[in-house]
């Protein structure tokens, strides 16, 4: 399902995240370029931790920062179906990337993870 470029904002991201809690069939979701920010990312994370069907999620260019990344990291620790996560070109800082990297240590499902274009600097 491609919902990119709809400018849904944080509130729309939260609504989609809530609706996904009932999802049992959707496998691919692209919500790139929607300015969902940390609040919307947290709503997706709440769903992602319990999802049994979603295998691809694209959250590119959504102004997601460290808080949103940490929420996604907590979800990845519980998720065993997501294979492809794209969060490139957001505002994720080193703390957010570190939380995601730590979560991935125990995640056996994720095959592709693109976090390029974030604010991780040379330390990352």
Summarize the structure in words.
Helices cover 38% and strands 10% of the residues. By secondary structure, it is α/β, with parallel strands linked by helices. The chain has a four-stranded parallel beta sheet, with no helix packed on it. The model has no long low-confidence stretch (mean pLDDT 92).
Shape: globular
Going across the biggest sheet, name each strand in turn.
1-2-3-4
Q: Which range best describes the helical content: under 10%, 10-25%, 25-40%, 40-55%, 55-70% or over 70%?
A: 25-40%
Radius of gyration: 13 Å
Beta-strand content bin: 5-15%
Distance between the termini: 32 Å
Low-confidence stretches: none
SS field, number of helical segments: 4
State the order of secondary-structure elements, H for helix, E for strand. HEHEHEHE
Q: What integer is the average pLDDT?
A: 92
Largest sheet: 4 strands, parallel
Structural class: alpha/beta
Total number of strands: 4
Short note summarizing the structure:
The protein is α/β, with parallel strands linked by helices.
Write the layout of secondary structure elements.
Elements: H1 9-19, E1 28-30, H2 37-48, E2 56-58, H3 66-78, E3 84-86, H4 94-104, E4 112-114
Output the keywords.
124 residues, alpha/beta, 4-stranded parallel sheet, 4 helices, 4 strands, globular
């Amino acid at each position: 399902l491609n919902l990119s470029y709809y400018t849904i904002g944080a509130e729309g991201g939260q609504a989609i995240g809530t609706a996904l809690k009932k999802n049992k069939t959707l496998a691919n979701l692209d919500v790139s370029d929607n300015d969902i920010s940390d609040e919307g990312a947290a709503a997706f994370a709440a769903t992602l931790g319990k999802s049994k069907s979603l295998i691809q999620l694209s959250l590119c260019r959504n102004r997601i920062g460290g808080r949103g990344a940490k929420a996604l990291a907590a979800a990845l620790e519980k998720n065993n179906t997501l294979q492809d996560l794209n969060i490139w070109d957001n505002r994720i800082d080193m703390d957010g990337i570190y939380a995601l990297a730590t979560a991935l240590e125990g995640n056996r499902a994720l095959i592709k993870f693109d976090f390029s274009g974030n604010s991780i600097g040379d330390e990352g």
